[in-house]
Here is the input.
Amino acid sequence: MASVAELKAAIDVALQQIGDGQTAVQAAGEKLAEAQQTLAGALEGSGHETVEAAQASLTQASQELEECLAATLVAVEQAQLYVSTL
Here is the structure.
């Protein structure tokens, strides 16, 4: 069994990895927002259902990234709570 110090160190590494993942998810969200604006500008006035479907898919992807970030925040809070009990 790992010592308390080893366990805390491993959790710290995991928290850093989560932070890195959060940064990547935020960057992906920004790129999706840019793509959505570019697509909207390029296809302004088009009522074609495929354009609407593309926009809806990008909106859904953005929402799912926000849910992902929220889940990682909960994971961080729980890990930190656990560390505080060690």
Summary: Residues 32 and 54 are 12 Å apart (CA to CA). Residues 4-42 form the longest helix (39 residues). Helices lie at 4-42, 49-85. The chain has a mean pLDDT of 92.
